[in-house]
Automatic annotation (TrEMBL):
D-isomer specific 2-hydroxyacid dehydrogenase NAD-binding domain ranges (all copies): 117-284
UniProt cross-references to PANTHER family, sorted A to Z: 2-HYDROXYACID DEHYDROGENASE-RELATED (PTHR10996), GLYOXYLATE REDUCTASE 1 (PTHR10996:SF257)
Name this protein carries in UniProt: Glycerate dehydrogenase
Domain D-isomer specific 2-hydroxyacid dehydrogenase catalytic: 22-308
Length: 330
């Protein structure tokens, strides 16, 4: 292999490795046992010569790492994630390193987890499961684990991009919910979908569904009926977790489904004890197909930059770089 490419973690599948090997790359996979690598750990991995790195959302890709990568002759970095709040794209630009992410392949998988959390919260699945396992079930009762019906309620979506729109469609179509969404951009296709589905329901003699584009996040929180349920599958800091714990304590009927946390991997004090919270460890994109796809896209991102973009003559096969106009390395 002419090019040295590092992956800071073992990643699912073998396709990503084969793609790199077939294209003159030597692939080095870090097998360090600790979950979160420090900046120093990654500098040591990069060493003196490194053409590209595939990294993870747990790593702090800022000035120090991009400087180290650029010194080692590196031209490309890809996050194995769609989110890139862990990446300082300006610093990458400064050092002439192209940055990629892995959109698309995780849209439905992430939306399905958001839907799972919505259902788990509304139907109290985790609490009920604990109850069964604890041997507490001694017969059917009219009041046992009564939750909320989603049908006919309004689901609120903040951020109607790829994932938010996919989730909105699942909830509207699957559960006949109305939609209120907030986004800087108009989600035209989503609006059309809800309108058409509403008309279909009406023609069937059923209660139609409606959509509304809110002019603020507050309006969504005020008007969504899933006000009694909050789901977060984006990034932890969008929710004030201390305030959330307090709200969960004061309002036992309020329920939350969380995939992400303000200070991962930690939870704020009290959250773990709340029966009205369903918490999972940042697994929204964790389906086999998606994780293999993310690894493949991340490898293609790095290859695309090293070998000349787009490598297969099909621009759609390579995720667009986040900073396509990065200046060449000095
Ligand atoms: C996961 O959180 C991702 O951004 O891909
Ligand atoms: C519940 O099991 C019912 O039959 O209503």
């Amino acid at each position: 292999g002419k090019y040295r490419v590092i992956s800071t973690k073992p990643m699912p599948g073998t396709r990503w490795i084969n793609l790199l090997i077939e294209q003159d790359c030597r692939v080095e996979i870090c097998t360090e046992k600790k979950t979160i690598l420090s900046v120093e750990d990654i500098i040591a991995l990069i060493g003196n010569k490194c053409d590209g790195v595939i990294g993870q959302l747990t790593e702090d890709w800022g000035d120090t790492l991009f400087a180290a990568l650029s010194r080692a002759g590196g031209k490309a970095f890809s996050n194995m994630a769609v989110g890139y709040n862990n990446v300082d794209v300006n610093a990458a630009n400064k050092y002439g390193v192209a940055v990629g992410n892995t959109p698309g392949v995780l849209t439905e998988t992430t939306a399905e987890l958001a839907a799972s959390l919505s259902l788990a919260a509304s139907r109290r699945i985790v609490e009920a499961d604990e109850f069964m396992r604890a041997g507490l079930y001694d017969g059917w009762l009219p009041h046992l684990f009564v939750g909320n019906l989603l049908k006919g309620q309004t689901v609120g979506v903040i951020g109607a991009g790829r994932i938010g729109s996919a989730y909105a469609r699942m909830m509207v179509e699957g559960f006949k919910m109305n939609l209120i969404y907030y986004d800087l951009y108009q989600a035209t296709r989503l609006e059309k979908f809800v309108t058409a589905y509403g008309e279909f329901l009406k023609s069937n003699g059923e209660q139609p569904v409606y959509w509304k584009r809110a002019s603020s996040m507050d309006e969504v929180l005020r008007e969504a009926d899933v006000e009694a349920i909050l789901v977060n599958c984006s990034r932890g800091p969008v929710v004030d977790e201390v305030a959330l714990v307090e709200h969960l304590k004061q309002n036992p009927m309020f329920r939350v489904g969380l995939d992400v946390f303000e200070d991962e991997p930690f939870m704020k004090p009290g959250l773990a004890e709340m029966k009205n919270a369903v918490v999972v460890p940042h697994i929204a994109s964790a389906s086999k197909w998606t994780r293999e796809g993310m690894a493949t896209l991340a490898a293609l991102n790095v290859l695309g930059k090293i070998k000349g973009y787009p490598i297969w003559g099909d621009p759609n096969q390579v995720a667009p770089f986040l900073n396509e106009n990065a200046p060449p390395p000095a």
